[in-house]
Amino acid sequence: MTRSALIVAHGQPSDPEPAEAEMAQLAQSVALHLPGWQVRAATLAAPGALKSALDALDNPVVFPFFMADGWFIRTLLPKRLSESGHEGLPVLTPFGLLIETRSLAIRTARMAAAERNWGEADTTLILAAHGSGRSPYPAEAARTIEDAFTAGTGFASIRTGFIEEEPSLAHAARDAGDKSLCLPLFVARWGHVIGDIPEALETAGFTGHLLDPIGTHPEVPALIAKTILDAP
Question: pLDDT for 59-90, tens place per residue?
Fold first, then answer.
């Protein structure tokens, strides 16, 4: 029997098709690291996409391409799996909660500083996260990554700012200085990353460098594949 995996992301409710296409490309990249596997992807925002992907796979393991395990993972995803007739599938730890993702974030920030010939002790790091006005889980996930930076790096200052709760990203990025980096803790260049984050940084008068969202890093497909292979 061919083993299979489904990568699930939130997507863009206002314009679902571009995100669906990006996720299909991600699935193809992950499949390169999983010989003999069937790998598909779907977003929750695209009507019918989840069921269509599930129906094409045989009891897949589900990898949530999310930064936290909040309402979408705890409530909506199980509900959608059940409605699609695929209740009880194994759902892995979301991308943002993996130890490997924390390590990747640290390597990314360190490399960005080194490429600019900045010492860590002279560099301010801003972590841009989603947050939530209704659930503590998104902020907790971001704080876990912040804690990893605090414990494992020597950046002059590490600040976390949110889009949907306080402290806001604009507040966190204020007076960060020219030697500053902003790392978006998001899986893709979708709504918040292309709109809210640049707007917040502009409001803050941010003069540092905005990095790509962590989920778009070239190492991510291999990271996802390893997580799937290592699943019980």
Answer: 999 999 999 998 889 999 999 999 999 999 99
Q: What is the DSSP string of the chain?
A: ---EEEEEE---TTSHHHHHHHHHHHHHHHHTTSTT-EEEEEESSSTTHHHHHHHTSSS-EEEE--SS-SHIIIIIHHHHHHHTT-TT--BPPPGGG-HHHHHHHHHHHHHHHHHTT--GGG-EEEEEE---SS-SHHHHHHHHHHHHHHHH---SEEEEEESSSSSBHHHHHTT--SSEEEEE--SSSSHIIIIIHHHHHHHHT--SEEPPPGGGSTTHHHHHHHHHHT--
Is omega for the bond preceding 94 within 30 degrees of 0, making it cis? no
Mean model confidence pLDDT for the chain: 96
Give the Cα separation of 58 and 64 in Å (integer).
18
The predicted model gives 175-190 an average pLDDT of 97
pLDDT tens-digit series, residues 136-178: 999 999 999 999 999 999 999 999 999 999 999 999 999 999 9
Spatial separation of the C-alpha atoms in residues 26 and 133, rounded to whole Å = 30
- Name the β-bridge partners of 8: 42, 64
